[in-house]
Amino acid sequence: MRHVAVIGSGPAGYYSAEALQKIYGADVHVDVIDRMPVPYGLIRFGVAPDHQSIKAVYKRYEKVALSDNVRFVGNVTVGKDVAIDELQQLYDAVILATGAPNDRPVGIPGDDLPGVVGSAAFVGWYNGHPDFVGLAPRLDTPGAVVIGNGNVALDVARILSKTAHEFEGSDIVAGALDALQASAIRDIHVLGRRGPHQIAMTPKELGELGHLERAAPRVDPADLPPVEDDAALDPGLRKSVTILRDFAANPPVGDKPKTIDFDFFAKPVRIEGDGKVERVIVERTKLDESGRAVGTGETYAVECGLVVSCIGYRTPPIDGVPYDEDHGRFANDEGRIGDGLYCVGWARRGPTGTIGTNRPDGFAIADLIHADFGTALSRKSGRPGLDRLLDERQVDIVTFRDWQKIEAAEAERARDGSPREKFTYVEEMLRQLGIGRTT
Known about the structure:
By secondary structure, the protein is α/β, with parallel strands linked by helices. 31% of the residues lie in helices and 20% in strands. The chain has 2 domains: 2-101 and 315-431, NAD(P)-binding Rossmann-like Domain (Rossmann fold); 102-309, 3-Layer(bba) Sandwich (FAD/NAD(P)-binding domain).
């Protein structure tokens, strides 16, 4: 029997568990450990609430989680309830699948003013993450700036723009929905240092902005390169640029009260305000021969009271685990950190790729573990050893069956048309199980 602990119950964690099952069959026990009492990580707290078809991938993980040799161990914080070196003593292999939940800092003067939030916090707020339920982003202002040219920036702009009707069928939490419907935001600027040919926005997500009930996207035609240059782009990017060209060619008409302006070749250099955000100072850029954005010296101001930074994420360090500060991830060699210690997904490669990218990543790590350990008999105690340790420390674990009780309670309290109304406090989740101790 092989004993493996996976830290993190998001896509990378469950794909790793699935891969270990395929390699070892019944001869492996996998414990998927998470500090939250609820599984799925990025699927629950990161994917936009109005993208339910993407969230449906959780059904694949559910099948893995309900198998006899995979166990969800929720409400357990690694580094507090149990240390990494203790897990290494209990398990043959420990896989860090913690993702990259921390925002990269903006890194410009004024980025600490009230009104500046990172996308991890903002997305966590409207997705009901317990860490961010009290965020209270500034929505009592007509202007908002979204920094970044990827899909997360599109998610933020779209969520800031939608009507209550457009949120039907989503699982946005009630508190965020109420705050957004009372929002005074009317002008949203999406800032990107480079141009339309350098965006990381996919056609589906970009195209959604063209169908919003009360918001219209705008692109300055002068920012678009000659149309014949699009031929050199990969098909997906070419489709996205075509959508931007359509936004530029068909300026908004009618009485839509909100606008989403794409500011390309725009580098934020300073955030100003008297005790709170009041404007972002932006420098116009141009591309040099290598494709880098360089400043031109020309600046302009965007008046706003909310700034959401969507410029990337970092994996939080863990005591005793080598860390790559430059890339914001664990230091590793193709997923191997050290003897019996591995990392997978964003914790391995940084915040790149889609949810599906984590599947081959998980299988690669499982192959690596198999190559390192083969089929030799394990001398580790694994699951029983962890249970004894947590019991001694009076840590109440939440199993997958327990989670299903929480899930049923969330479905029961859902508003009409919504699949669930999430509990946004750990205490509320544990109360459904009769557990009083929190992480």
